[in-house]
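Batch 3, record 17
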Amino acid sequence: MNASTAVVLADVPRRATRRLSSYPVVPLTIIGLLVVIALAADVLAPHNPEVGALGMRFRPPVWQAGGSAAHLLGTDHLGRDVLSRLIFGARVSLVVGFTAVIVAGLLGVALGITAGYLGGWVDEVIMRLTDTWLALPALTFAIFLAAVMGPSEMNIIIVLACVYWTRYARVIRGEVLSLKEREFVRLAIIAGCSRLTIMRRHILPNVLNSAIVLATLMLGVVVVTEAALSFLGVGVPPPKPAWGLMLADGKRGLMAGYWWLTVLPGLCIMFLVLAANLLGDWLRVKLDPQLRQL
Amino acid sequence: MTTALLQARDLRKHFPVGRSMFNRGGAVVRAVDGVSFDIMPGQTLGVVGESGCGKTTTAKLVLCLETPTDGSVEFDGQPLGTLDGAGVRRYRRSVQAVFQDPYASLNPRMRVGTIVAEPLVTHETLDRGRVDARVAELLGFVGLPPRAATLFPHEFSGGQRQRIAIARALAVSPKLIVLDEPVSALDVSIRAQILNLLRDLQQQLGVSYLFIAHDLAAVAHMSHTIAVMYLGKIVEIGPAADVARTPKHPYTQALFAAALPSHPDEARDDMVLAGEVPSPLAPPSGCRFHPRCPRAMARCATDEPGLRPQADRRVACHLYDDPSAA
Amino acid sequence: MTEPLLELRGLSTHYESARGTRVTRAVDDVSLTLERGRTLGIVGESGSGKSTLALSIMRLLPPAARIVGGEIRFEGDDLLKKSAREMRHIRGKRIAMILQDPMASLNPLFTVGDQISESLRVHEGASRSAAWSRAQSLLQAVRISAPAARMKEFPHQMSGGMRQRIVGAIAVACEPRLLIADEPTTSLDLTIQAQYLSLLRDLQRDHHLAMIFITHNLGIVARMCDAVAVMYAGRVVEAGPIRDIFNKPSHPYTRALLESVPRLTDDNHGRLPAIDGQPPDPSAPPSGCAFHPRCPQVLDKCKTQAPPAVTVAASHTARCWLHLP
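Prediction for the assembled complex:
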């Protein structure tokens, strides 16, 4: 090492001491809470969520006139306890929501990277497929698939994944197109890396940002779509509780003033989506070494 | 007489323009149009020229990032055109590159150690210890401490990142490194450090360079031979010091005259060249430089001059044609 | 004794981070003068503050930046005391600026003719037709061929060199007194750059323009400027007439910079005298004299105290403890 070309050791920075908060407290709390609730639903829920007493229909929450302590958050149109339904509904929404988003993501990102990086006829084929898929109205298509496959949680996940992968593929392909012109990718080619290696080692980590942000955006959409599917009878089969289904069911009561049937499941969906967004933000920063320093 | 490490003969690369799946015809951009040069072991060939001259495409041809439309490149006696996939991979052990932008040359999500080791692990399977040792050695070559291997690129300045890029280029002990504007994106006070480093590495390791830059003084300083390109052709090629001090081709003269002075008093032939750099889509007939040439003659518009030997170099200009030849 | 066209006295511009926790002294106590019709070069590397200085003079700073002290005297008036409306009148009409990237300076949706005319119509209230014909003659003045046809073209239809000339035409349209050029030729080819610098010289002569050239390229300064100010970490470390600076650089940074640049006239392959280390981070500069970690002649004093500007020759100042006993 030539002394005069040696870079003074002080010039190379020590590992940055500023750390981002080690754990994403708020989102993990919310999600953790929801997971605990979902897992312990049998223990936590005061009533059977699927069975209701018709004599107890449309009871308001405990703090309103006419409410009772037996049903803290009131009852729905079939006399079923709202609180218990919300608790069990957490299971469905969490499982369906996250799984569908992740499966759609894996599929969409893989196809997007392949199309974007390999180009040529591979790109053409995948993009035409994506275009066609996108042209189909998502809900109608989901209904069709669900009707064909029959209602069940697993099928819903598959349906949602099949419908929403295209959002990822499009966006990720666009990013890959500009990424592959970057000099570090050229240098990887010059170093002799195979195309698969480059896609895995250089392209994938650099599109993760967008993929995660997309996933958090998709979560809300997926939960709401699940609701629509459930409402139309091709989603989670009733009487199994799902927040989306509760939301749909509760609409009929709005005019009559039975606000708790829509507002409460709506709040739950909101918190879930909020937590997912915050988690997504934290993940983005964690995975991007550059942003970590801020 | 040492044999050349790399020999390019009559290299051509044409890009079709306006072609889609349905339209085969159309214009052609003659990015590189009949270029021949040698790169000797342990020496630097500097290439200068302005936009559209073809120097970047030439670099890509040498790096096997593009395949020539015509002509040949021979490396260590082996023609590149006949190489299959495995052959190209072997070739990549011998030829590496350093590009202009130190901020885009390193994958922001990889640690420096992994970046530097990548060419090595791609071509050889070595155990972790050997790889780490080699990375530390390479970082040492470029004046960075071994500790740098654990850090990420954004923790380094531009000059340091360029050093990392150079360390990576050296990983497989290549015989030739293509340097495409290696210091233009760096601060002025850092450029000398990097140029010195490159020079030292050449002396220590015997690596050859293809040095492309628009800073004429830097190219002249670093190169043994300079090639001047214009619209896809080499108009002058010869020993660096001579070409820089006594350029023969009118374009070379204009180029070096346009170079900024290093002192207010330096004599400048205010030989300001008129006109724009023509587009490679429609190069002028005959000698491509003739519309802008202050010394153009009648035949320049019709006859294209070949690159012919002139004392210690080769020049493509009718002014130097042997009058006794036809 | 005519007063200088532009005089900066102790100008300081700071950037504040969003939470006010970090203050970057982008421009620190800068004093400069520029006479009418003369050219001043401001040389510096990234982080030296030269672009911030230009924006400060034009009062076009981003919201995070504030001028915290000093005066900017232009034709006798302190620009810092002007209202936003008054500054709008000054910009374009009395002080013009051209930037590095001509494509970013020109609106892709308007024709060239429209863009040049706009300046004339806004500042001089010229009618459409009057502005159009003046714009055309301006295109001719910047040596663009077939100006009538060009007027109707769009920026993307032209080469980089032509675009930069159009930017120049817009800049001189209203006959400003001062033209600030921030790295105007960095994106241009060498021969095009030579043409452009020639053009600027001629424009300067014809319109009696004063110019400030902001650049990192000492060659441009050597070719174009009468005087130069060298900036490092927000301060002017040396300033003076061009020949003085090149012949007798009085600050170690200037000297080292001049020596480290390869010259065509040198013999090849000698080692370049390089400066160790790298330019400082503007938000965390070294204490005392910012150059001390890299200075080959550093004294103990340099590490703790920033030197004041010392006059080393006529109109030639340097901030260096070596010149103070």
